[in-house]
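Appendix C: a fully annotated inverse folding record. The material below is reproduced so that readers can follow the format used throughout the book. The structure is listed first as tokens, followed by the designed sequence.
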């Protein structure tokens, strides 16, 4: 059994893992950069070791240093969290070679599912719907133009090894294809070192819906429901909720079966997420499978009561899942808003700096995940995510109102945040009704920034309509 875990991450996800390990009586050792020396995870982990300077390449991405630190300090396992090395097959392999348990899937699974083209091929063989596209990798812009003409515009050019919206470009006509291909490949090479490209038919303004999966090493796989992640800015999620208001129960069941089929076809174990795009007629298509814990996992924990991080650790220890599919009960509705240190009124520019004053919301159905405290300095070197608020209630509209109250209560001084912007979002009629897709931010950002009393009146009408509908 695992006695001591090295946490190769920072911020709120590092705290989440530390807290879980406390409950499991597992010791924690945190590796950190010099920029994070005063962070809460460093203070709350039982042991902490500085492994480098602020830039990720000089600290959180130093595979050999992290492994050496784990071995020197008697660790049995490494939890990578999300981002950084969490989906790095080489790192998972190095852990295995050094007798360390990698808390995640095997290096082979990460490689297979991390390569979007091989993942698509696997799904096709196992009758999981995929977006029409290239049959394999595309060697150059000329070949891309031929394939685009065959499947029809618009198309989406994607990096096979990309993630987080990197290495993706749209092309709406033959005139745009060359630039789109070259830009996508250049970005892919600079961010993940892999210039392999493929192409999909672009589903216009789809809904982005994913299913949370857990699998153990005995071949047992369960799904923990869907999450709607359609509100995004520059391919980065801002809001996640479960269950999706958009899809019908019939479609939800079909997608759940497809997600299970995908995980079983891969022989998947650990926590994972099967991601789909869904068009306005509820046709759904597999786009990728994430082989790590997700930022939005608390949404699923809220509606199921399943501790996903705890299950990750149990699976890594070789234990069977704590739940069978029939044990999973999904109740109520949960919404997560991501709080970023950024200024929406200045083109969402990052806002690092010292937290002068902080008050976090509380109350029935409210969960806050954050590394913030008064006096903490938000670093300019990392992602601007500083907190997550999760609101849970028996009904969706009540969850929205709880979220609204939590945002109104939260106070952060010293840095700019998107709290006010998200608060205004809770009054948007499309959001209240759940009738939004991935074009939401493009269509509504300006209106939210210029929000007025007319917007409040429209929100009240939307709420009345939903209340009447619910009886």
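Designed amino acids, in order:
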């Amino acid at each position: 059994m695992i006695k001591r875990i090295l946490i190769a991450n920072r911020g709120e996800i590092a705290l989440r893992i530390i807290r879980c390990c406390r409950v499991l009586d597992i010791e924690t050792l945190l590796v950190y950069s010099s920029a994070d020396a005063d962070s809460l995870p460093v203070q709350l982990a039982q042991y902490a070791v500085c492994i480098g300077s602020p830039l990720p390449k000089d600290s959180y991405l130093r595979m050999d240093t992290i492994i050496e630190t784990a071995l020197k300090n008697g660790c049995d396992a490494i939890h990578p969290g999300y981002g950084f090395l969490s989906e790095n097959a080489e790192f998972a392999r190095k852990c295995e070679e050094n007798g360390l348990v990698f808390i995640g899937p095997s290096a082979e699974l990460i490689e297979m599912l991390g390569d979007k083209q091989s993942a698509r091929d696997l799904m096709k063989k196992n009758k999981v719907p995929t977006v029409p596209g290239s049959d394999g990798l595309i060697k150059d812009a000329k070949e891309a133009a031929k394939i685009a003409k065959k499947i029809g515009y618009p198309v989406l050019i994607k990096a096979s090894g990309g993630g987080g919206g990197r290495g993706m470009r749209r092309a709406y006509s033959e005139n745009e294809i060359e630039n789109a291909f070259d830009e996508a490949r250049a970005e892919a090479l600079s961010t993940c070192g892999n210039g392999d490209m493929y192409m999909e038919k672009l589903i216009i303004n789809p809904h982005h819906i994913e299913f949370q999966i857990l699998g153990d090493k005995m071949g047992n796989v369960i799904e923990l429901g869907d999450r709607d992640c359609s509100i995004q800015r520059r391919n980065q999620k801002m809001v996640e909720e479960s269950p999706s208001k958009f899809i019908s129960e019939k479609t939800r069941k079909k997608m759940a079966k497809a997600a299970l089929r995908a995980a079983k076809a891969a022989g998947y174990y650990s926590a994972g997420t099967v991601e789909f795009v869904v068009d306005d007629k509820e046709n759904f298509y597999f786009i990728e499978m994430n082989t790590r814990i997700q930022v939005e996992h608390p949404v699923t924990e809220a509606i199921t009561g399943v501790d996903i991080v705890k299950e990750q650790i149990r699976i890594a220890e070789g234990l069977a899942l704590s739940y069978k599919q029939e044990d999973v009960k999904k109740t109520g509705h949960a919404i997560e808003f991501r709080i970023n240190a950024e200024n929406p009124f200045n083109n969402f520019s990052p806002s690092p700096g010292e937290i002068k004053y902080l008050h976090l919301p509380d109350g029935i159905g409210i969960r806050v995940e954050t590394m913030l405290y008064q006096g903490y300095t938000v670093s300019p070197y990392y992602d601007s995510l500083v907190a997550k608020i999760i609101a849970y209630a028996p009904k969706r509209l009540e969850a929205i109102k709880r979220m609204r109250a939590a945002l109104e209560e939260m106070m952060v001084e010293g840095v700019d945040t998107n709290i006010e912007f998200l608060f205004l979002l809770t009054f948007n009629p499309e959001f209240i009704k759940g009738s939004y897709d991935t074009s939401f931010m493009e269509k509504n950002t300006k209106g939210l920034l210029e929000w007025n009393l007319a917007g409040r009146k429209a929100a009240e009408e939307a709420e009345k309509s939903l209340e009447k509908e619910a009886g």
